[in-house]
Amino acid sequence: MTTVSAYAAPAAKAPLERTTIQRRPVGEFDVLIDIKFAGICHSDIHQAREGWGEAIFPMVPGHEIAGVVTEVGTGVTKYAVGDRVGVGCLVDSCRECENCKVGLEQHCTGGGVGTYNAIGKDGEPTYGGYSEKVVVDENFVVRIPDGLSLDVAAPLLCAGITTYSPLKHWGAGPDKKVAVIGLGGLGHMGVKIAHALGAEVTVLSQSLRKKDDGLKLGADHYHATSDPKTFEELAGTFDLILSTVSAPLDFGAYLSLVKTGGALVNVGAPEEPISLNLFSLIGGNKTLAGSMIGGIAETQEMLDFCAEHGLGAEIELIRADQINEAYERVLASDVRYRFVIDTATI
């Protein structure tokens, strides 16, 4: 076992504090990663504050991990010491169910293991990226291309794949009109990726406060949802709408913006349930769908795509002792557009 420094929430809703945790010895197929940067995802806040239900404490959040390999197990074939790598939301799965066999490990039915707030196959809690090092099975590690710096690559391990996967699945590309609801940590990557895929991109945000940013990131249009005229003018416009916000929305209103046969895909995960009049789906043969991150192979595909198109996250680099402040700023929508922890400060 290796003792490493980390930042952990000792209990639900408690401020995160510096502590030490134990990392398992490097096994035959394991990779030891010296974490360089860790993104702060809104999911970290939901889980550290038990917004999504009972959680495991102490909790070391962080599933947007970028670092360098410093040791490999004797059976490792994919990575070598010195490689630039990342770890996202998963560190293990059953590898035998139907979903795992086709590269959908995020939908594992036999026991997927989250990077943190989960129990590993060894019976011990998993701890995430707000730490100095992590040990991960090579099959759940991805390679960060040389074209991406590690700091802007870290958020791609969640924010990048969370938006890339549904955009690809639902056919975002040339001759398609795509709207992104929310210009935050997820939304700004959704705009960048949809634009790179060739779609005509619109941002739907509460206000026009971030309009200049949205257009610079690749949006063709920007509309305020607080203006009722937006829903009148854009009725039946979009082939695909990607909702990235974690607050409950009036999905009926947003479905009115979808073309006949189009889809509204949700990647945000509000803590509260929503209600929906099903006539907003029936009329127009529309689809309301969800999407959850992506499999390991698709995550690698996303990283390669982002490197090819020069797409990194827009980040604000912080010290570890600023994590609690950063959480409050995320909740206040006061970040453009992803906080990333310099783990050298842990």
Automatic annotation (TrEMBL):
Residues 14-341 form the Enoyl reductase (ER) domain. It comes from the Bacteria. InterPro entries: ADH-like_C, ADH-like_N, ADH_Zn_CS, CAD-like, ER, GroES-like_sf, NAD(P)-bd_dom_sf. Pfam families: ADH_N, ADH_zinc_N. GO terms for molecular function: alcohol dehydrogenase (NADP+) activity; zinc ion binding. Keywords: Metal-binding, Oxidoreductase, Zinc. PROSITE patterns: ADH_ZINC. SMART domains: PKS_ER. Its cofactor is Zn(2+). It catalyses: a primary alcohol + NADP(+) = an aldehyde + NADPH + H(+). Its EC number is 1.1.1.2. Belongs to the zinc-containing alcohol dehydrogenase family. This is alcohol dehydrogenase (NADP(+)).
